[in-house]
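Troubleshooting entry. The earlier prediction with zinc ion gave an output that would not parse, so I re-checked the input for stray whitespace and re-submitted. Clean input:
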Amino acid sequence: MQALVRVCVVTFWMDNWPVARKEHRCELCRRTIRPGEKYRRGVGLDGSTAFTFKECRHCRAVMDLADPTAGDSEYDFDVLGEWDPYGVTETRWKVQWARGWERRDGDLYPVPAKAVAS
Ligand SMILES: [Zn+2]
């Protein structure tokens, strides 16, 4: 009789917010994260495969404020691509996201924030 071996897959995940020393690519908008910018860097272990995941502050803010995944913890570029924004503010964020958060003059748009009620 063969012994049944159960493999327990432990998924490990941690993240931090370093300041970019070189260019990185945001996985959610595919723009270049510029040196000097803060970005979210996640390191995970999926079974025996290690991976890293990088997000710019803009995309992270949209994920936090608009929650396009509706609570799903796994997401990538397509989540924002298929995201159906609600209201004027979110629609503006989606347009800016599609532009890689870059203005015509090359500067970045401000990081999305909840509008202050007036
Ligand atoms: Zn991004």
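This one parsed fine. The chain has a mean pLDDT of 88.
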